[in-house]
Specification:
Layout (H helix, E strand, L loop, with lengths): L2 H32 L2 E5 L2 H11 L3 E5 L14 H9 L2 E4 L8 H6 L7 E4 L29 H18 L4 H26 L6 E4 L6 H6 L3 E4 L11 H13 L4 E4 L6 H10 L2 E4 L8 H5 L4 H15 L5
Parallel strand pairs: 1-2, 1-3, 3-4, 5-6, 7-8
Length: about 325
């Protein structure tokens, strides 16, 4: 073989090798361009909203372990690390997650976008007072007013659009579709709850449904305060039992994820029946694995309310 031919072949071989290497480099870069946005959410409604808005362009994680009561949750060091490694961190607000500000002080990720979903929403005062909670303490359960839920959805869509402008229209379209579902749900609630013989919700759980009661012109009494750890006094329970008997209340509503001992006590003393009314902070492990949605939880709540308040079918 001539020396010139050998050199030419070697050059061609080198060029081919370089092209292959460059090709692999480009393939290695591709995932970076298509990398999904990582979102950490504190409560289930935020998790479900973010999933519906971001769809296949995001990875959404629920910080609250399924089956855990939201008000008693405290993040572990591993949770803080997950927040620090994410692109978006979405929480409800300072009154629902009072631990957030301390956690964020330890976050070093300069690219992390922090989203307070209560931004632009006027909080109503709770109507419950006990020795552990100040009178008129803000009620943080804003997702139980579906107009507020729509504002939260828009806040999340805006945050995603800022983080990923190339897909801003995609997020906005999904947000609009989801807000339409919330509007339809609101219309269903309005129609059903306007045709009830009773307008009084007696709840054996913590004070969570103030927004829903205000929106649909219902009377709402909870046995506990904003926190499920708050306990009613014997005097409070006696007064509540007397009111249930006086108003001929047929159903006591109980809470998901907490022992229904208060609801059971009220039912035993008044011969009332029990119905589940789920605030939706979190899901059981089984429901989470079955991909139960926020909309479906609220639809089940409406079925319970319709029965418990003796609404026209």
């Amino acid at each position: 073989m001539k020396k010139s031919t050998f050199i030419a072949g070697l050059i061609v071989l080198i060029i081919i090798s370089l092209l292959i290497i460059l090709s692999f480099d480009k393939k290695a870069e591709a995932p970076e361009k298509t990398k999904k946005i990582t979102i950490i959410t504190t409560l289930f409604p935020l998790y479900d909203f973010a999933k519906n808005i971001g769809q296949d362009k995001v990875e959404v994680y629920l910080l609250l372990p399924p089956g855990t009561e939201a008000h008693s949750f405290e993040p572990k060091p591993s949770d803080i690390a997950r927040i620090n490694q994410s692109d978006l961190f979405i929480y409800t607000g300072e009154f629902m997650e009072p631990w957030v500000q301390d956690v964020l002080k330890g976050v070093s990720n300069q690219n992390l976008k922090i989203v307070d979903s209560s931004t632009g929403i006027a909080l109503m005062p709770s109507a419950f007072r006990d020795e552990d909670e100040a009178e008129g303490a803000p009620d943080p359960h804003i997702w139980l007013d579906f107009d507020s839920s729509k504002k939260i959805v828009q806040t999340i869509a805006d945050a995603l659009g800022e983080k990923n402008p190339a897909n801003a229209d995609f997020y906005q379209q999904n947000a609009d579709e989801y807000k339409n579902k919330l509007s339809a749900l609101d219309a269903k609630y309005t129609k059903t709850l306007s045709q009830c013989r009773s307008k009084e919700i007696i709840y054996g759980g913590h004070y969570a449904f103030g927004y829903l009661a205000r929106r649909y012109d219902l009377k709402y009494i909870a046995a506990q305060g904003i926190s499920p750890d708050s306990e009613p006094t014997a005097k409070d329970l006696i007064a509540l039992i007397e009111q249930i008997k006086k108003d001929n209340i047929q159903y006591i509503f109980y809470e998901e994820l907490t022992a229904p001992k208060i609801s059971e006590t009220l039912a035993d003393e008044t011969d009332a029946k029990l119905l589940l009314l789920n605030p939706g902070h979190n899901l059981t492990k089984e429901d989470f694995e079955n991909n139960i949605s926020f909309i479906s939880i609220m639809e089940k709540n409406l079925t319970s309310l319709s029965q418990g308040l003796n609404c026209k079918q």
